[in-house]
Amino acid sequence: xxxxxxxxxxxxxxxxxxxxxxxxxxxxxxxxxxxxxxxxxxxxxxxxxxxxxxxxxxxxxxxxxxxxxxxxxxxxxxxxxxxxxxxxxxxxxxxxxxxxxxxxxxxxxxxxxxxxxxxxxxxxxxxxxxxxxxxxxxxxxxxxxxxxxxxxxxxxxxxxxxxxxxxxxxxxxxxxxxxxxxxxxxxxxxxxxxxxxxxxxxxxxxxxxxxxxxxxxxxxxxxxxxxxxxxxxxxxxxxxxxxxxxxxxxxxxxxxxxxxxxxxxxxxxxxxxxxxxxxxxxxxxxxxxxxxxxxxxxxx
Length: 300
Prior knowledge:
A hairpin with a 2-residue loop joins strand 2 and strand 3. The protein is globular and about 60 Å long. Helices cover 28% and strands 32% of the residues. By secondary structure, the chain is of the alpha+beta class. The strands form two sheets. Strands 1, 2, 3, 4, 5, 6, 9, 10, 11, 12 and 13 form an eleven-stranded mixed beta sheet that branches. It has a two-stranded antiparallel sheet with strand order 7-8. Helix 2 packs parallel to helix 4. It has a single domain, classed as Alpha-Beta Complex (Transposase Inhibitor Protein From Tn5, Chain A, domain 1). The N terminus and C terminus are likely disordered.
């Protein structure tokens, strides 16, 4: 798999389409969209919409799946194909909030995720002490594990960010912009996530903020090893740039979001054609030896 220089990129929807889930890949050679899934609303998978599904030629074996479930399926297919080696998976809040997706990333025991989470995600800075609490169910005395009463309530990651002194923040360069270096401040903490009131995964909480008196914050979690240093997280936080470029280039230059498709196969044909065209243009650019933007120019 190599070190921190190959990764399977962000899995998310095309902003203006709102119907697809995409996987992109970034390496030293460049970046490209490598897989896609069409998202069907749950109502479309009911009997009420059976006639419409037939008219749109939706395959009979297509059932409802959430976007994180679609992304997890793509990830498993990419792994099974064995063509694209990757070490890291980057995704936005929709997937960072999904245990289904995170469990799929961790299935092989070696892939590291770096995913966005919402500001109201709750966690403990130290894993809470658990205790056994008896209760009666249908006349039978049972016991369950609960958080000890003396433990503090979990904090939101936003509260964690605002509780940290300025000395715990580190200014780092993420990339070189057209007007000079782009810099943010970062910090990291090991935390235990809270799920339905119970402790869940112990992960890295990485927080990024803008410079200045009233900073904007972004929050990420990662299952990276305890020994992981901050520069890796800084580098991963900038890798979303490559994924955004995929969408920007395929929409602006190749018309990926400019279609009036009414059939299931037609959508897949249009999107796949745009993905292949984007990959071809990248290949031509490399063959011609022209300088091109690279995810690996982002400082790490």
